[in-house]
Amino acid sequence: MTYKNCVQDFIDDGTAVTIWCHNPKCHHRGELDLLKLRDRIGPDHGMLFEEIKDYFRCSKCGGKQLGMTRHPLTGGKPNPHRVRG
Predict the structure, then answer these.
(1) 80 domain-assigned
(2) Distance from C-alpha of 48 to C-alpha of 54, rounded to nearest angstrom
(3) Which of 13, 19, 2, 10 is nearest to 84 (CA)?
(4) Distance between the two ends of the chain, CA-based, in angstroms?
(5) Tens digits of per-residue pLDDT, 38-69?
(6) What residues make up the domain containing 61?
């Protein structure tokens, strides 16, 4: 499998992205709204963690110790814990 690594590729392929807070007192997580992210940083912007990490902070604790997981959308329904980019 070949991974594509720009925002529009993730949208087109039905890929979801979850951002995790690594603060041991928080552990908040949320799914990125890729359409809003595309509008904010452009459709051709890379989606490697190192390329997007500076755009986010935890909406619960404000922390910048984050991780990212990419996965297929489940049932085509957005995650109710979506992180607003």
Answers:
(1) no
(2) 12
(3) 19
(4) 28
(5) 999 999 999 999 999 999 999 999 999 999 99
(6) 7-72
